[in-house]
Every structure is written in structure tokens, then in C-alpha cells.
Write a structure and sequence with these properties.
The protein is of the alpha+beta class and 77 residues long. The protein has one domain. It is built from one helix and six strands; from the N terminus they run ββαββββ.
Length: 77
């Protein structure tokens, strides 16, 4: 399975960049957690865990090694 790089902007003007193997579940979890304001835990391909407070996410940008295209969503706040 190809790795996918996930970059997340935090409202504090910082970004996380995480390489993951399965992006589909992560996107769904982030969308649901954004509504609830909960913490999302993401495991990268090395096995490191990253906790993200969902209501602090400003944007999500997804780049796949397979196609080079990006997708994302931004807060409407």
C-alpha cells in the first residue's frame, strides 16, 4: 500500500505533516471529530501516534504518492 502524506494546519499557525498508509478512515474521523471537538489520534507509518484537538484544525491537505493530487477541507468559521 502506498504511503500518503497528511499535513494539518492548526489555528496556532503551525502545521503537522504526517505520513500515513490509509487516509480514508482518517478523513472521516477528522470530519466527525470536528463537529464534536474531540481529540483525534493518528498513527503514522512508523507507528508514532499524534493527538490532534479537532476544533483547532484550520485545514487538512492530503497528497498521495500515487497520483500527486491533493484534496482537503477548511473550516467555515
Amino acid at each position: 500500500m502506498a504511503r500518503t502524506r497528511l499535513r494539518i494546519g492548526i489555528l496556532s499557525a503551525r502545521e503537522l505533516e504526517i505520513e500515513v498508509e490509509d487516509i480514508g478512515d482518517i478523513i472521516e474521523t477528522l470530519e466527525a471529530a470536528r463537529k464534536d471537538g474531540t481529540i483525534v489520534w493518528i498513527d503514522d507509518f512508523r507507528g508514532h501516534r499524534h493527538g490532534i484537538v479537532a476544533d483547532q484544525v484550520a485545514f487538512v491537505e492530503v497528497h498521495s504518492e500515487d497520483d500527486g493530487a491533493g484534496i482537503g477541507f477548511a473550516s467555515g468559521d
